[in-house]
Amino acid sequence: MTKIPVGLQLYTLRDETAKDFPGTLKKVAELGFQVVEFAGYGGIPATEMKQLLDELGLKAISSHVGYDLLLGDLEGQIAYAKEIGIEYLVLPWFEQEKLQEESEYKVAVASFRTIAEKVTEAGLTFLYHNHAFEFAKLGGEFILDRLYREIDESVLKAELDLYWVKKAGLDPKEYLLSYKGRVPIIHVKDMAGDEEGFFAEVGQGIIDYPAIFEVAPSAGVKYYLVEQDVCKRPALESIKMSIDYLKSIGIA
C-alpha cells in the first residue's frame, strides 16, 4: 500500500515564516515533511515560491484562503495555486455567529456554493476546514453535517480537523468514516489529557491516532497534515516532536 504523505500546515510556523519564509521552509523539509499547506505566501511571487519548493523537494498541496480573499480575489488565488502546483483551496474559518443563525447560514451556504463551483470549474478542489463550533445544531442537525448535505460533494469536500472533532465531543475515527470518500486531507493534531484539553504534539495526547491511521486509507484520505494552532514550546521543536512520533510508528 502506498504511504500517505505527511505534511505541515504552515500556520503552525507563522512567527517563523514572518521572519524568514525560505529559511523556515528549508527547516520543514529537513525535518522530513513531504508536503506543505499554506496559510498565506509571505508576499513571495508564485514563480519564486515554485522554484523554492522544487529546490527543497517539497510539494504544495493545499492553501488556506480567507473568506474575504475568496470573495475579492478568487481568480488571483486560483492562478497562484495552479502555478505552484496546489490541488486544494481551503476555507479555513467562517464567522461562528453567522453559521449559527438560520438566515445568515443560508446566505453563507449560497456563497460557499458559488465559490466551490468556480474553484471546481478551474480544475481545483474546494474544501471546508472545521473547528468545534460547527458541531452546534441548527435545525436539529450539526451545522457541519448540514453544510456537507446542502452543498454537493462534487464541488465541496472536507478537510477534517480531528482535534476539533474530539473537542466537540465526537469520536474522530468514527466521524472520519462517516464521510468516507469525501475527506482528502485530515489535520493531525493531538489533545492534552488535562482538563483544558489544549493542543498537544502528535503522540503526546489522548487522540488514538494509530487507530485513525489504520482506517484513513480506506476512508480515502490522501494527505496527513500536522498542525498545532498554539505551541507551549518553540514551534519548530513541537513539529519535530510530532514528526518524530509519526516516524516512530511508520507513518512518516
CATH superfamily: Divalent-metal-dependent TIM barrel enzymes
The dominant shape is globular
Radius of gyration: 17 Å
Report the count of strand segments.
Answer: 12
Oligomer designation = single chain
The number of helical elements comes to: 12
The CATH architecture assignment turns out to be Alpha-Beta Barrel
If you average the pLDDT, what whole number results? 98
Give the fraction of residues assigned to helices.
40-55%
Strand order within the widest sheet?
A: 1-2-3-4-5-8-9-12
Highest-level CATH class: Alpha Beta
% residues in beta strands = 15-25%
Give the helix/strand class.
alpha/beta
> How many structural domains can be distinguished in the coordinates?
1
CATH topology: TIM Barrel
The run of helices and strands is EHHEHEHHEHHEEEHEHHEEEHEH
Could you give the distance between the termini? 14 Å
Give a short account of the largest sheet.
8 strands, parallel, barrel
Describe this structure in a few short sentences.
Helices cover 46% and strands 18% of the residues.
Account of the 3D structure:
The protein has helices at 14-19, 21-31, 46-56, 67-72, 74-84, 96-99, 102-121, 143-150, 162-167, 172-178, 209-219, 235-248; strands at residues 6-9, 35-38, 59-64, 88-91, 125-129, 137-138, 141-142, 156-161, 185-188, 190-191, 199-200, 223-226. By secondary structure, the chain is of the alpha/beta class. The protein has one domain (6-248): Divalent-metal-dependent TIM barrel enzymes (TIM Barrel, Alpha-Beta Barrel). The strands form three sheets. It has an eight-stranded parallel barrel. The chain has a two-stranded antiparallel ribbon with strand order 6-7. The protein starts with 5 loop residues before the first strand and ends with a helix.
